[in-house]
Amino acid sequence: MISMIAAVARNGAIGFENKLLYWLPNDLKRFKALTTGHTIVMGRRTFESLPKGALPNRRNVVLTRNTSFAAENTEVFPSLEAALASCLPDEEVFVIGGASVYAEALPVADRLCLTLVEDTPARADAFFPWLNPAEWRVEHEEHHGTDDRHAFPYTFIDYVRAR
Ligand SMILES: NC(=O)c1ccc[n+]([C@@H]2O[C@H](COP(=O)([O-])OP(=O)(O)OC[C@H]3O[C@@H](n4cnc5c(N)ncnc54)[C@H](OP(=O)(O)O)[C@@H]3O)[C@@H](O)[C@H]2O)c1
Question: How much distance in Å is there from the Cα of 148 to the middle of ligand 1?
Fold first, then answer.
């Protein structure tokens, strides 16, 4: 099972200057609950944006074409294909970004775990790929309003491939 997990603004934006656009504690909680114990696959830039390096209790896979790249508690692969080939058949894989890796992984993804944030940011330079509505079916949807820790309303929405 290959899932992609992302927090996406109304205009598809996911980042600016190699940083996330939003700080939504419930989104981080969901990210942790879904990915812990499993494999996360990310681009080198997303890895470098993690404040404390590799995320604990997960197999951290980093993609880079730089053959001298190394980082603690990570496995490094030169292509998405090689990274996926290293996974066992029953391994749960979460592609966690960024834009370039989402775009490449979309055709092989089975599920999309998105947090749709009801905002359009003033500035963004990284975007989630366009989704063909004919290819995806909503499996689960959960709306949340604002509160003192969440400045924007957001919806957790899981898509699976339409058969
Ligand atoms: N909203 C969200 O949920 C979310 C999640 C994750 C990231 N983001 C945001 O997304 C932005 C980063 O996205 P990005 O597209 O700039 O960077 P990225 O996808 O994180 O990393 C790009 C780098 O990964 C490596 N790479 C990508 N595809 C590869 C492949 N097929 N084979 C080998 N190496 C590959 C290359 O590294 P080398 O240059 O070292 O070769 C490439 O420069 C940031 O703003 C981040 O905050 C948002």
Answer: 31
Q: Is the CB of 26 under 6 A from ligand 1?
A: no
Peptide bond before 145: cis, by omega within 30 degrees of 0?
Answer: no
Residue 55 CB–ligand 1 contact under 6 Å: no
Asked if 4 and 129 touch (Cβ cutoff 8 Å), the reply is no
Exposed/middle/buried for 87, CB within 10 Å: 0-12, 13-18, 19+? middle
Three-state DSSP at 100 gives helix
Q: Find the length of the chain.
A: 163
Compute the distance from residue 149 Cα to the ligand 1 centre, in Å: 28
- The encoded tokens of residue 158 equal 């899981």
Homologous superfamily in CATH for domain 2-161: Dihydrofolate Reductase, subunit A (3.40.430.10)
Distance CA 80, CA 73 (A): 18
Where do the domains of the chain lie?
A: 2-161
Phi, psi of 49 (to 5 degrees): -85, -10
Q: Which residues of the chain have pLDDT under 50?
A: none
CA–centroid distance, 4 to ligand 1, in Å, is 13
pTM to 2 decimal places: 0.98
